[in-house]
Automatic annotation (TrEMBL):
<dbReference type="Pfam" id="PF00227">
    <property type="entry name" value="Proteasome"/>
</dbReference>
<keyword id="KW-0963">Cytoplasm</keyword>
<feature type="active site" description="Nucleophile">
    <location>
        <position position="37"/>
    </location>
</feature>
<comment type="function">
    <text>Component of the proteasome core, a large protease complex with broad specificity involved in protein degradation.</text>
</comment>
<dbReference type="InterPro" id="IPR001353">
    <property type="entry name" value="Proteasome_sua/b"/>
</dbReference>
<keyword id="KW-0865">Zymogen</keyword>
<keyword id="KW-0068">Autocatalytic cleavage</keyword>
<dbReference type="GO" id="GO:0005737">
    <property type="term" value="C:cytoplasm"/>
</dbReference>
<feature type="propeptide" description="Removed in mature form; by autocatalysis">
    <location>
        <begin position="1"/>
        <end position="36"/>
    </location>
</feature>
<protein>
    <recommendedName>
        <fullName>Proteasome subunit beta</fullName>
        <ecNumber>3.4.25.1</ecNumber>
    </recommendedName>
</protein>
<dbReference type="GO" id="GO:0010498">
    <property type="term" value="P:proteasomal protein catabolic process"/>
</dbReference>
<dbReference type="InterPro" id="IPR029055">
    <property type="entry name" value="Ntn_hydrolases_N"/>
</dbReference>
<feature type="region of interest" description="Disordered">
    <location>
        <begin position="1"/>
        <end position="39"/>
    </location>
</feature>
<comment type="subunit">
    <text>The 20S proteasome core is composed of 14 alpha and 14 beta subunits that assemble into four stacked heptameric rings, resulting in a barrel-shaped structure. The two inner rings, each composed of seven catalytic beta subunits, are sandwiched by two outer rings, each composed of seven alpha subunits. The catalytic chamber with the active sites is on the inside of the barrel. Has a gated structure, the ends of the cylinder being occluded by the N-termini of the alpha-subunits. Is capped at one or both ends by the proteasome regulatory ATPase, PAN.</text>
</comment>
<comment type="similarity">
    <text>Belongs to the peptidase T1B family.</text>
</comment>
<keyword id="KW-0378">Hydrolase</keyword>
<dbReference type="InterPro" id="IPR000243">
    <property type="entry name" value="Pept_T1A_subB"/>
</dbReference>
Amino acid sequence: MSNWTQGTDPSPYEPELGSLPNGSQTGDEDTVNKTGTTTIGIATDEGVVIATDMRASLGGRFVSNKNVQKVEQIHPTAALTLVGSVGGAQSFIRTLRSEVDLYEARRGEGMNIEALATLAGNFARGGPFRAINPILGGVDDEGSHVYSIDPAGGVMEDDYTVTGSGMQLAYGLLEQEYTEDLSLEDAKSIAARAIKSAVERDTGSGNGVFLAEITDEGVEIQGHNAFDALL
């Protein structure tokens, strides 16, 4: 059931929410595919870049997949990363994408990125998705936005952010290289280098990079098994 009430004018920062299943978490962590991962979001005046590695592991000890797309489009001009349990993250993205479609169908207009981030935080806090810590990046009439969303539902906007097991390694490079006047192409190169830096030392990250380029024209996502062409 939706919490939308006919005849009211709800705040754009409190979009209609559908019901969520009552899920239960199990202790079988060793049999759950996890992304481990390093994910990066960078906002520029030209748009947003999101970069992720491509590895999934089983119980944190075995590489179960080397070609995982950890960033998905969820909105005409926004994308979200997968961090944590693969199943939980995929369910989170499907649910969020459905609610975005429902919002736009009911109101006849697109959801802005701040409202989308609030919705994602609400779901992270109240949903049965296991621990996830995604990055949301998007572009709207207000400009370019990057948000990190913690497992408790906290939503924080920044010029750039990193989540995942390789975050400390990636942050070191980003702190040195980020400037406010970055072009979108420069941001893509820096993001790929930061992923490569994490891959060198973090066992939960590896096997290449997916890059999402987000502008007011849409979302383009490409996977690269080698870093050389991006650096």
